[in-house]
Amino acid sequence: MSASIDLMSESFFANPFPTFERLRTQAPVYFFEPYQCFILTRGAEIEALTKSPHFSSRRANELLGGLGLLGEDTASKEMLADWSRLVFFQDPPRHTVLRQFIMKSFTTAALERFRPRLAALVERTLEKGRRQGEMDVVADFAEPIALNTIAELFALPEADRPRFMRWAKDLLKPSGAAVNTDDVRSSVRRTSNDMMAYLRDLLEKRRATPGDDLISQFIAGEEGNAHLTGEAVFQSFQMIGAGFVTSTNQLTNTVLALLKHPEQLSALRADPGLMRGAIEESMRLEPSVLSINRLCVEDTELGGTHIPKGRFVHAMTASANRDPEVFPNPDRFDIHRTPNRHVTFGVGAHYCPGASLLRLEAEEALRALLTLPRWELVGTPYNYQGSNLQDRGPSSLHVRFPKN
Ligand code: HEM
């Protein structure tokens, strides 16, 4: 490809889709020099990547090392040992065992039982915005909902929740190139180890006094299964860490997509049966996660391109969501779209286990927001300074709800 490709600037994150289209049509398997990795932009190669044994998810050392997070110090070693246990970093057969362990507690029925508590939580969160007639959708709505949802499910003590919000944000900092300094890197190691130490302590308390929460259920799942010993703490860390920023961004992206397409918002107001369509279409067109990645563990070929062992491959799921061969009129936001087989939650064995929770959160959040008569963007323009190839969403989004 002749002109250089930008995958790092704020303007790219504000609108990555023209770049994805260029890559998809001109170089669907593209070697990106600055990161020395391959970039995939078409669904066919992304699916092949997730099915091939030549590409691995056992990549904690290489991924954290590549971000400069690992030194020779004890904190680095501790962090790597912990992260290497996360389900996200496993291949079969261990991956299959851990997925079963997680999904046993995280069932659709359990989530449906949680719905009324979630609806009440959303309503409480919206109180201030309702009263004031305006709010920052990120800080006043999406963040507290995302945080408290996961906190309620794991019964994290109320007083400690702000700490979890800080921790979850801290852990993502090195993915943004602009803040990837030595200070940030050592603070990430500290955060990871502090959060893990906190959870170990909480787990011991929960072991002594179990409750009706996911930590207690993970502990029960370990019992009598020697091959699962210790997993409750690792997979709690994983679920809590993975569920906060992703959900915050997706709730915000959904509101923004509807604001940008008032005719679709009107259609949704007129027919709440379109709720699910609106959520799926926002996830397709404005996903909060742009990509997944795998490490090549054996020389191979993908879409006609040679991929050497040791290279990372970043698969742009957000680009596959706009492939015109799969989605007619791919850039059009259409809440009536069916089928809508977007790949925002990933493909294959690692498909996001939080998908049903996110859908529940988005449904309850939208249901509450639709009770407000009108939404209007106000004041401060939004930006994508906090975004990276993993997580994308505006840093703030000020919205007003005029009465008429
Ligand atoms: C809109 C919100 C979300 C999006 C877009 C999203 C996206 C994804 C994607 C694409 C993957 C696959 C990664 C891969 O193939 O390597 C994934 C995995 C994962 N997600 Fe989510 N996620 C979201 C919310 C959540 C929530 C709320 C939770 C927890 C409650 C969660 C927990 C996880 C976990 C534990 C994994 C690892 C699964 C595995 O490796 O088998 N996610 N997510």
UniProtKB/TrEMBL annotation:
Highest rank taxon of the organism: Bacteria
A Pfam family reported for this protein in Swiss-Prot or TrEMBL: p450
Keywords assigned by UniProt, alphabetized: Heme, Iron, Metal-binding, Monooxygenase, Oxidoreductase
Family from the record: Belongs to the cytochrome P450 family.
PANTHER family registered for this protein in UniProt: CYTOCHROME P450 YJIB-RELATED, P450, PUTATIVE (EUROFUNG)-RELATED
Protein name per Swiss-Prot or TrEMBL: Cytochrome P450
Organism: Hyalangium rubrum
